[in-house]
Specification:
The complex is a heterodimer of chains A (659) and B (307). By secondary structure, chain A is an alpha+beta fold. Helices cover 25% and strands 30% of the residues of chain A. Classes of the chains: A alpha+beta (659), B mainly alpha (307).
């Protein structure tokens, strides 16, 4: 065996010895307290699980056969006699809940108009044995806690003859067989590429006094306990392999295969990828805890973008460290997945997939956004391990907020998505565009699979959350919110916080009662839409015959009406500008439905603007937030010119070829 | 037409003599586009004219503001703006069919033809041109369909075996290049056919099509070269126009953008009329050559006005 890291090798050998002695005594060994994959001398999480998986991947058939030894440490404070397991790959079957929802909603553009046999996925437990309790394979029962779909096989439960006492441990020995689908939901194969995500039987989380083990849904993600992963992958020698954790060693077999061993600590999932085509790009990020080895696995046709990936990942890591806290792992693997696969834009612990194509001009920052977003998940999901099934907004939304902050800080607020040939778009505007069509469909606080549809899931859990937090900056201040996020991260990293944990932290750090805002924003579906309802100016001496108006001399009475069209109430600033250049700022608490401001001046109102600093990010209609008394036709004229040009060009093109 | 004259310069000469047709076609297109844009214009003026937010479209071009504007209920369904524009595009296409015979007649004459001659040619050949257009569409549709089928087969084979995402794009470009050459070839054929229909007053368009096919095959490369020159000039004009629009016109200059964009379109139109002129020049040359089988049939050129 050839170890790349001698220290890791010693740990594995030591661990092997401990396991051997433990097995001889038929006592379940403790979960290792090793720290070889993290920049820390002590474990960072309360390690509940230890997965030891030995897997053989058949690259021709896209199947995998493996044995899994799962040690579960019962820290629930009560005896446990049932254990649910996720079998995610069973979600890719025609009558599964995942496919039913995907057919109803579409999943990443896949609508399942017809069933493609290549989409079939399966995860079959061949044998499940519990040490000291025997073979319990026959006791396995599929359960359907979310929708009672009897044909869904994505969660299986086993009842143990002997409960596991509090603080006791139990060891499961599972043999399983996987059939990977042609990439769906960021797992599976495409040509000779494979991404192994959600590929092994994974135990649920005991959370708030019950097992939390939801079925696989078309647009929700995952939830799992922290622990240690030791994974051996055997696959063809021509494969370039990357995975969560640190690579401990590689051994070549005579049959043309190789076994690559990985070790990960204080993580709650393990993903891997293999393809003969990857080209590796390496760099080091110096975190405050120690060096982080960055490995970027690029497609050869995208090799020219390796540095771009590296730059954005390092810039994001730097900001996250500065704003929230350090990244404690020794590695970060960034995967540029197979073109045409549905494996792009996904996060796993210490392992993310990006999204790019051969055509990625510098002014299109999609590549950067995806990389920044997926890295952000190392914090909001990876370390602060919220329940992605039930509180999607806490990982996707908080992370989208962080992503906007990172992108804006690097590329500028209105140019952080597109900045090409005079055409611009900001990341926060992109979040807003996702939110607007679904603004009143769902509250942020809702089980992920219970959103009205996938557009609402995206628009609310990603978009609205980001906008709500960006707007919160205007209420408590940008620095205070950053401080709150920092506290939230430090307090809840390596735990499973709830929404109230987050909201309480915001209130505690800001020292303000924010319930009036959070209740509407997080728990409600109220929509915010202010408008300038009416503006008028008339001369004080309007009744006089022969009145001659003169700018600067004639005195006018001006009235301005502001209207709150929808139910979300938020204090706002209003700026009234007069035609002598004078500006007046008003503050309205937004409690009533409308407010009128009256002025008597030697000037007429020129324009009125609600929220002149543009700090409210989720107003449903920004166009009616201001009113210019004298119409300015130039912006529309510009668009009409584009429109006319396009029509003429199309007409000429048609006539060119047809006549 | 003088047989020794280079086709391109002969075409240029004809074009120079008949600039008015380009102007009229350009104005017709502009009028149709303007009419087709009224619904769009009304919608967006209603949303943008009194809003400070619209400034982000004027000084720069904030795509998010545009997307947000289109999503507003006041804007209405996109179809309600797009359909009138599309209909006007079709109207320009129909107008081109209607008036092109007059243009070809004018091109064949060494003096300006009268309005009466122009419109008589238009009326006389309108139905013939419609038939020519239908035949062209059928042939072009079948051939491009075949090419597209071959493209699809090759693309899916490539997709199975190669993970290089540049290959499908290269294949797409190659296919588009082939489609372009194919359509240019067809255009040469039918441009000659149209010239024959008008200048020989040929009511049986199939005869003109057959004759034009024979002639095109015989002189394909000479004609293709001339047509490609005009097409390349058109491509350069379009790119240069867009570049100048971007580089020289300030984002908030609506008038500047109008002039640059309209100049670009007018020059593009010149390129197509140049091709037409080349076809007429070639037609006149070939029909006076002794080996041409239609040379015995007199060409009906407009009468030269009395001095």
């Amino acid at each position: 065996m050839r170890f790349k890291h001698p220290a890791s090798a010693s740990i594995v050998l030591l661990w092997g010895t401990i396991r051997l002695s433990a097995q001889l005594a038929t006592v379940v060994p403790p979960i290792p307290a090793t720290t070889s994959s993290i920049n820390s001398s002590a474990p960072l999480s309360e390690r509940v699980v230890h997965y030891e998986i030995d897997a053989n991947y058949d690259a021709e058939k896209h199947t995998l056969d493996a044995t899994e030894i799962l040690t579960y440490h019962n820290l629930t404070g009560q005896a446990l006699d049932t254990f649910p397991f996720h079998l995610y790959l069973n979600g890719f079957q025609p009558n599964s809940t995942w496919v039913r929802e995907a057919k109803r909603e579409g999943a990443r553009g896949r609508v399942f108009a017809r069933w493609d046999s290549a989409s079939y996925g399966a995860e079959e437990i061949k044998r499940l044995e519990v040490i000291d309790q025997g073979d319990l394979t026959s006791q396995l029962q599929f359960i359907h806690p979310d929708d009672d779909n009897q044909q869904d096989r994505s969660v299986v439960e086993v009842r143990l003859p002997k409960p596991v006492p509090p603080d006791g441990s139990v060891e499961f020995r599972i043999s399983f067989h996987d059939q990977f689908p042609k990439t769906l939901e960021r797992t599976g194969w495409n040509r000779d590429f494979v991404l192994g995500g959600q590929w092994f039987p994974k135990v649920g989380v005991w959370w708030h006094g019950a097992w939390n083990c939801h079925q696989f849904h078309a647009y929700t993600e995952f939830f799992a306990d922290f622990g240690v992963y030791d994974v051996k992958l055997t696959l063809p020698q021509n494969e370039v392999v990357g995975a969560s954790g640190v690579e401990v060693g590689t051994i070549n077999q005579r049959d043309g295969t190789k076994t690559v061993t990985y070790h990960g600590e204080d993580i709650h999932d393990f993903a891997w990828t293999a393809s003969p085509h990857y080209k590796d790009y390496y760099d080091i990020f110096q975190s405050s805890l120690g060096p982080v080895k960055i490995r970027i696995m690029m497609q050869p046709s995208h090799w020219g973008q390796a540095e771009r990936h590296d730059r954005i990942v390092k810039a994001t890591m730097e900001r996250f460290e500065q704003w929230y806290g350090p990244y404690p792992y020794k590695t970060l693997t960034v995967v540029d997945p197979e073109p045409g696969s549905e494996a792009y834009g996904m996060e796993y612990p210490t392992f993310i997939t990006g999204e790019t194509s051969w055509f990625a001009p510098q002014g299109f920052l999609d590549l950067e956004i995806v990389a920044a977003h997926e890295f952000g998940h190392q914090y909001w999901y990876g370390m602060v391990a919220t329940n992605e099934f039930e509180d999607a907004w806490m990982d996707e939304g908080i992370n989208s907020y962080s992503e906007v902050k990172v992108m804006d800080s690097i590329f500028g607020p209105r140019t952080s998505l597109i900045n090409l040939a005079g055409v611009t778009e900001g990341d926060r505007e992109d979040q807003r565009l996702g939110y607007l069509p679904v603004a009143d469909l769902d509250p942020m606080a809702r089980n992920g699979w219970q959103y009205a549809n996938s557009a609402s899931y995206d628009g609310i859990s990603y978009g609205k959350t980001a906008l709500v937090l960006l707007t919160l900056e205007s209420i408590i201040g940008e620095d205070t919110l950053r401080q709150a996020m920092h506290s939230y991260f430090l307090r809840y990293r390596f735990t499973h916080p709830t929404k109230e944990d987050f909201l309480r932290t915001l209130e505690e750090v800001s020292g303000q009662d924010l319930r009036w805002y959070l209740h509407q924003a997080v728990y409600g579906t109220e929509v915010l839409d202010y408008e300038v309802l009416q503006v008028s100016s008339y001369p004080v001496d309007w009744y006089k015959e022969q009145l001659i108006e003169s700018k600067g001399r004639t005195e006018y009475v001006s009235n301005v009406w502001i209207h709150r069209k929808n139910d979300f109430a938020l204090p706002v600033e209003v700026e009234v500008k007069f035609d002598n250049g004078e500006r007046i700022r008003e503050h309205w608490d937004g409690q009533d439905r409308w407010m009128r401001y009256s002025y008597q001046k030697r000037a007429k109102v020129q324009s009125v603007e609600i929220d002149p600093e543009h700090r409210i990010e989720f107003d449903r209609n920004n166009f009616n937030n201001s009113y210019i008394v004298e119409r300015v036709p130039a912006p529309a004229g510009k668009l009409v010119n584009y429109w006319t040009f396009s029509s003429q060009l199309l007409a000429q093109f048609l006539a060119w070829w047809m006549v | 037409m003088h047989s020794k004259t280079n086709l391109i310069s002969a075409g240029t000469h004809i074009l120079g003599r008949n600039k008015r047709y380009i102007l009229w076609f350009y104005l017709l297109n502009l009028a149709f586009a303007w009419a087709g844009g009224i619904a769009f214009s009304r919608s967006i003026h209603r949303i943008l004219d009194h809003s400070l937010y619209a400034d982000r479209l004027l000084h720069g071009f904030d795509l998010a503001v545009l997307e947000e504007m289109i999503a507003r209920p006041e804007f209405g369904p996109v179809g309600s703006s797009a359909m009138p524009a599309l209909m006007c595009t079709v109207l320009f296409f129909l107008a081109s069919i209607l008036f092109m015979p007059g243009v070809l007649l004018g091109y064949s004459s060494d003096h300006p033809i009268s309005q009466e001659e122009f419109f008589r040619a238009c009326g006389l050949n309108a139905w013939r041109f419609v038939r020519l257009c239908v035949v062209f569409a059928l042939i072009a549709g079948i051939l491009t369909g075949l090419l597209s089928g071959i493209h699809g087969t090759v693309a899916s084979a490539l997709d199975q075996y190669s993970n290089d995402d540049r290959l499908p794009v290269l294949l797409e470009c190659a296919t588009l290049g082939l489609v372009f050459l194919l359509l240019t070839g067809l255009r040469i054929w039918f441009d000659l056919g149209q010239s024959d229909v008008v200048l020989r007053d040929q009511p049986a368009v199939r005869k003109s099509i057959r004759w034009a096919l024979r002639i095109t095959r015989r002189h394909f490369f000479a004609l293709l070269g001339s047509y490609l020159v005009a097409a390349i000039v058109a491509g350069v004009i379009l790119l240069a126009g867009i570049f100048l629009w971007h580089a020289l016109v300030p984002p908030d200059s609506v008038l500047g953008a109008f002039w640059v964009s309209q100049a670009t379109l007018a020059l593009l139109l010149v390129s197509r009329f140049w091709q037409r002129a080349i076809a007429v020049a070639f037609y006149l040359r070939i029909s006076t050559e002794p080996e041409t089988d239609l040379s015995s049939i007199p060409i009906r050129l407009p009468a030269t006005p009395a001095p």
